[in-house]
Amino acid sequence: MAANESNDDLDASKRINGTEGASSGGEEQPKSKIKARETWSRKIDFLLACIGFSVGLGNVWRFPFLCYKNGGGAFLIPYFICVIVGGVPLFYLEVAVGQFTGTSGINAWSLCPVLKGIGVASLVIVILLNIYYNIILMWSFRYLFASFTTGTLPWAKCGQEWNTCNCRLANEAPNVTINGCNVTVNETETKMFDSVTEYWERNVLRITSGVEDMGSFKWDLVLCLLLAWIVVYICICKGIKSSGKVMYVTATSPYLFMLILLINGALLPGAKQGFLYYVNPNVTKLKELDVWVDAGTQIFFSYSISLGALTALGSYNVFKHNSYRDSIIFACTNSGTSILAGLIIFPILGYMAHMQGKTIDEVVEKGPGLAFVAYPQAVATMPAAPLFSILFFVMIILLGMDSQFVGVEAVVTVFVDMYPQYLRRGYRKEIFIAVVCFISFLFGLPMCMGGGMYVFQIFDYYAASRILLLVALFECIAIAWIYGVERFYDNIEMMVGFRINPFMKICWVALSPIFCLSIFVMSIINYSELTYKRPSNTYIYPQWAVGIGWAMATLSAIWIPIIAFYMIFKHLSPSLKTGDVKEGLKAILKPKGLKAHQLRPQDMEETMDYDLSSTQTISPVQPNGEPPSYDNIVFNKY
Prior knowledge:
- There is one protein chain.
- This protein is mainly alpha-helical.
- It is built from 26 helices and 9 strands.
- The protein folds into 2 domains: 2-154 and 202-557, Up-down Bundle (Amino acid/polyamine transporter I); 605-638, no CATH class.
- 64% of the residues lie in helices and 4% in strands.
- A 3-stranded antiparallel sheet has the order 7-9-8.
């Protein structure tokens, strides 16, 4: 334990002075010594990591669909309201907690011991998210490999082994001969399926009739999933020193691909129709609860709130880093990317509607259907189709990959911070990362089976949805109401060097909790059980599958009350027997493990409540307002 405390003091000293990045680089340390905790090599690494993690697939396929569904341009009104009162304040709250404490997960929320369950809840959510998020990259790799052809894309034609007699091309005549079947298309009698849908369902997924019939493994998907996890491991095996460098490519290059696709889409026939559908406002939609629920939940998805990853990313900043500035830049980049994605997707949907003689509402898809059905269908009829298909799926992989490996890094960081004496020695961290990746790969294998899409939908619908709102609500309670919003504002001033806008304070105390609670209540009112809409039918999940989904959701949220009751039972109950309730309340409400550089001058009045584990002299507060020089003194709160 003494060695552990000494190492924490060293980490704190380096974080304050901003010297850790240089000292903990490639220089190998003896295996018998605990390695120092890393920080970002450059200031911009943190911003790129946030952009890479949060700007992902949700921006590309979820935001454009929500705009279409909820009144086009009118949806931007509730969206930006939610950004202002929820997205930016909650994003910065998590980042600031990580930067101030210099740790992540459970340890970071020692600022409010009774709500340390926030750290456990976030950990469970991000573990579940990592398992199913890589499935999207698996499908993307599968389509990317199929795009390397000099001829027609494999999903652009019928008559192949996976096609049925009901297969047709988008612009095909009513009377066709396919696979030896002479078919006369009568839309009222015969259900026809386009070649792209049959390729997706019958070749890539080999989808079964339901989750009751999981079928067999698709070994090409298993290999693609294995490849995705190998790439993730290579990117993060050396910690943020390696992943930070990868971010320079994965966080920036997608914008080049977006620009190419934007120019190409704008030149397609029907692009104007798609653009008008995207931006045309329907203000009557603003009266519907669904619009506000969709706007609120989209903020949580695109800003990656309540996953614990932002706290982990912030913890790698040096103590004096201006993360407030980075958070504002991030918000502009994130929301701007969502709007840009709509400008890319909807002209393509307009092109599809033009080619098929349909309206846009007949061709629009959401979620995986947009990336693996709608866009492949559009690109199949373009000139140089294989090239634009490769560009699209490379963009999807880059957008998803940095989100994935930051998510895994967040999981690893929690355990490394909890057990540094075991995991910061030699190559143990690299081995631990490999174990985490391998276990996640094993849990993802059921989604490589014929019924895998049904399992994926359960994860997507229940694992990280409404529960995020509750976690964020408790984060506001922990910092603004229990730890103290004024104290936290002082802490931020100690870090960034100036007093940030008071609007953040208003949000943390009132607006953000109201936002979280309101969206949560509205989502419960509008709740409907999970279904999966296929081109052939709408699959209704059995009750046992819905129960599994709710079990996953409960698995994360339950830790907040469990740990709260445990802390009350451990500290408050004995104090009630002795009559010393004040000490019991201090034990569950006051921060633990604070170091000297994290204390304000007025906090020194409370030092009798701390265990001074060092006999060094505390130097006075500096005239320039800098925090006192409390070298290596640790205040362990009881």
